[in-house]
């Protein structure tokens, strides 16, 4: 907790452990951990929900979760193997992801 006082608003702040696609039910747990941590940690920096793979069974869910987080969105697919339809659901034509309004 002592390190939280040194964060500036523009810092990227990891809100969970690494996403592990091969662990059963990890997608659900990852969403819960990130969402609860975001409620508090969003005041200290830009949330980072970790990367995900668009070829994962939970890719649409993971993409939407990250897009709604207000943080960065990045993928870890093998180049050329990513599912473009997943990316197009959350990205604008210039490849940026809109950031939700903060209240």
Would you mind describing this structure in some detail?
- By secondary structure, the protein is mainly α.
- It has one domain (2-90).
- 33% of the residues lie in helices and 6% in strands.
- It is built from three helices and two strands; from the N terminus they run E-H-E-H-H.
- It has a two-stranded parallel ribbon.
- It is globular, with a radius of gyration of 14 Å.
- The model has no long low-confidence stretch (mean pLDDT 84).
Work out the number of β strands: 2
Helix count from the secondary structure assignment = 3
The helix/strand series, from N terminus to C terminus, equals: EHEHH
Q: What is the subunit arrangement here?
A: single chain
Structural class: mainly alpha
Strand content is 5-15%
Share of helix among residues?
25-40%
**Could you give a short account of the major beta sheet?**
2 strands, parallel
Widest β-sheet, arrangement of strands: 1-2
- The value of Rg in angstroms is 14 Å
Overall mean pLDDT: 84
End-to-end gap: 24 Å
Low-confidence regions: none
Described by the principal axes of the CA atoms, the overall outline is globular
Number of domains: 1
């Amino acid at each position: 907790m002592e390190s939280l006082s040194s964060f500036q608003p523009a810092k990227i702040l990891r809100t969970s452990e690494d996403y592990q696609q091969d662990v059963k039910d990890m997608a659900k747990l990852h969403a819960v951990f990130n969402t609860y941590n975001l409620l508090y940690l969003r005041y200290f920096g830009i949330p980072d929900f970790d990367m995900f793979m668009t070829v994962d069974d939970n890719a649409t869910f993971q993409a939407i979760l990250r897009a709604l987080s207000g943080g960065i969105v990045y993928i870890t697919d093998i180049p050329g193997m990513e599912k473009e339809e997943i990316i197009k659901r959350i990205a604008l034509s210039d490849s940026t992801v809109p950031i939700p309004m903060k209240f």
